[in-house]
Each structure stands twice: as structure tokens, then as C-alpha cells.
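Standup notes, structure subgroup. Blocker cleared on the adenosine-5'-triphosphate input:
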Amino acid sequence: MEYISHSAADTERIAAEISKSLHSGDFVALYGPMGAGKTAFTRGLVKALVPECLELVHSPTFAIVNEYRGKALTVYHYDLYRLRSEDDLISTGFEDYIDGGALVVSEWSELFEDALPKERINVRIEPINDTDRRITVC
Ligand SMILES: Nc1ncnc2c1ncn2[C@@H]1O[C@H](COP(=O)(O)OP(=O)(O)OP(=O)(O)O)[C@@H](O)[C@H]1O
Ligand SMILES: [Mg+2]
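Run returned:
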């Protein structure tokens, strides 16, 4: 499936649309360069899936992972950019989150692809220009 986004708000809307086909336990691997809109996409997912979560979705770059806990679902939002090793990833609770029935989203999936579950939803965000993005889901 391919979408074209013309703004950050558009990307959030597309993420909300895609969220309709997601289930607890799914893993969403985001790919794309710096500033592509991976955090914007995650914001759209969390707004749609955990609407009672009032915390603003921001880049977890410094924390590695943010947790958005809702009644029906918890979303773990990873940013793998500053992670040094797979051991560091595991020490964040990664494997428990994956097996624990939460929805896990990762930014910079290209950096630790081997550590990601084989069964996952890949979302590639390619900048076309300043405001347009091609979003491919497979
Ligand atoms: N179509 C678009 N979709 C998403 N963001 C867009 C779009 N057009 C412009 N932008 C801008 O691009 C930036 C995307 O930032 P965002 O933090 O979501 O990217 P990111 O992929 O998470 O970057 P990083 O690799 O640093 O984590 C924002 O400033 C946003 O306003
Ligand atoms: Mg980001």
C-alpha cells in the first residue's frame, strides 16, 4: 500500500488510517532518513490507538523508548538512532514488550533490523521534497 503525504498533519492522518488494521502484539518498523516524519507518523498512531493518552508524542531519542499506556492497548515507541548494541536494546525490555501483547513502533529500524521480529509491518517514509512524503506499507 502506498500513500502520498503533503504535510505532517497528513502523515498523522495516514498513520491513523493504517492503525485501523493494526492489532495488539503487532510490531511496526519505521524506516526513513532524519526528518522524514517517523515521529509524526507515530504521533498519528498513538492519537488513534490510545486516545486517552494526553501525553504528547515526542522523539524518544534520549530515553530510547517511550510508553503510551491506554486502557485497551499500550504502545512502546522506540528510537533506535542512539542505541549502541543489541544488548542495550534488550536491556530496555524490548523482548518483553514484543511478547507482552503491546504494540511496538520503532524509528530507525534499518539500524537494528536483525533484532526486529520477522513478522512485522514495515513502513517506509521517503521524502520527495520539503513537504511531500511517499509512505509505503508492507
Ligand atoms: N509530509 C510530512 N510528513 C511528516 N513531516 C513533515 C512533512 N512535511 C514536513 N514535515 C516536517 O518534517 C519534520 C518531521 O519530523 P519528525 O520528527 O517526525 O521526523 P523523524 O523522521 O522522526 O526524524 P528523526 O530521524 O530525527 O527522528 C517535522 O518538522 C515536520 O513538520
Ligand atoms: Mg523521530
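Discussed briefly. The chain has a mean pLDDT of 95.
Next: hand off to the docking folks.
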